[in-house]
Amino acid sequence: MKNVRKLFLWFSNVLTICLVTAHLSFAADPLAKWQPEFDPTGAKYTYLLSCVGHPAIEGVAVGFRIRDRVWEETNGQLYVDFRPLSQLGGEKDVINKLKFGAVQGMMSSSVAAANISPKLGIVNLPFVVDSFDKLDAFRNTAATWEPFRDAALSKGLQAIDFTGYGSYGWATTTPVTSLAEAAGVNFRIAQAPVNIDAYKAWDLKFSVLPWPDVPQALQTGVINGLDHTPIVCNISKKFTVARYYTELDYAQGLYVHMINTKWLKSLPEDVRETLLRVIAEESAAARQLTKDQQEREIAAAKKDGVVFLKLTDADLQKMKSGAETVYTAWQEKIGKQYLQTVRTSLN
User: Fold this and answer.
1) 26 falls in which pLDDT band (50, 70, 90)?
2) Where would I find the beta strands (DSSP E) of the chain?
3) What is the pLDDT of residues 283-297, one digit of tens each?
4) How do strand 45-51 and strand 105-109 relate by DSSP bridges?
5) Where are the domains of the chain?
6) Which CATH number is 42-165+254-297's, of 3.30.465.10, 3.40.367.20, 3.30.40.10, 3.40.190.170?
7) Which superfamily, per CATH, for 169-250+304-346?
8) What is the DSSP string of 85-120?
């Protein structure tokens, strides 16, 4: 009887360990629900595509939709091996891999894209491409899109399309309805030269921090403001600390789909055309999904008690006036005529 009891306890412990291990293994894989429903091992070609974002964001999840459609429409010839969540490294590291062809594609955040070519920084300039409608107009107008698309050709890269993650504003731990209140906030901004110049022009305090450092900095009070979008702030739980959001809509956050042109040209023409067509179609659909997602995330945040605010018209105009100094600083890097064309076309 004693041996039976020991055997029973041993079996129970083993079963418990197995169940816990299985649970932890599943919980540790945030991409479990996005695994392909096909076996890609027979593919003739592989497109390794990187992104730092989480696929809970529609502008990131598009990578999986591209993967599945390309597989089907090329009859299993091309496998889009999409790797979100920084699986292939940070953006600067991946940019270098992309140039050398170790990675064939990258959905780069727009704030990092300016490090590839200054002209790509035009979408980060404050109050230029600052709405969903302007973003679509920018993409669908040859005079604004094509110089952006080809900005990095000299480096063997091309921007074949883009998706997004919403409209930029301020998530803060105290309410901000004026520039005077904003002056008391230390904002975290991205590691991007355009953003740095904008905050200097607005005479606001800021800290340049890598994204992984933000949660602790926000919780400990090292920063008390975050320059980002409602989608990202709500999905990444930043609103649990920063309970106020000032809607500025001064820029659209993008994932710019960069591709290694040498690799792209190496594909058979029919496979290449299918890849580019699917990316264009799914990216356009994702931009609409992003607009819808922003509305949902704002509604969910409000329901959870996050307070959404706006600056006065006078203070917003001061920010727009301050942005003129950023245009002056960047027009030579971007191209004076191109910047003028974009501003005139969108306004």
Assistant:
1) very low
2) 45-51, 78-83, 105-109, 157-167, 169-172, 187-189, 206-208, 225-228, 244-246, 252-260, 307-309
3) 999 999 999 999 999
4) parallel
5) 42-165+254-297, 169-250+304-346
6) 3.40.190.170
7) Bacterial extracellular solute-binding protein, family 7 (3.40.190.170)
8) TTTT--HHHHHHHHHHTSS-EEEEEHHHHTTT-GGG
Query: Are the folds of 42-165+254-297 and 169-250+304-346 the same?
Result: yes
Total-model pTM: 0.89
CA distances in angstroms from 45 to 71, 82, 218, 330, listed in the order given: 10, 13, 43, 40
Q: Please give the pLDDT value at position 191.
A: 83
What tens digit of pLDDT does each residue of 142-200 get?
999 999 999 999 999 999 999 999 999 999 999 999 999 999 999 999 888 899 999 99
Classify residue 15 by burial, with Cβ atoms within 10 Å: 0-12, 13-18, 19+. exposed
Beta strands 169-172 and 157-167: pairing type? unpaired
Strands 206-208 and 157-167, sheet pairing: unpaired
Q: Where are the alpha helices (DSSP H) in 185-312?
A: 193-201, 214-220, 230-235, 261-266, 269-303
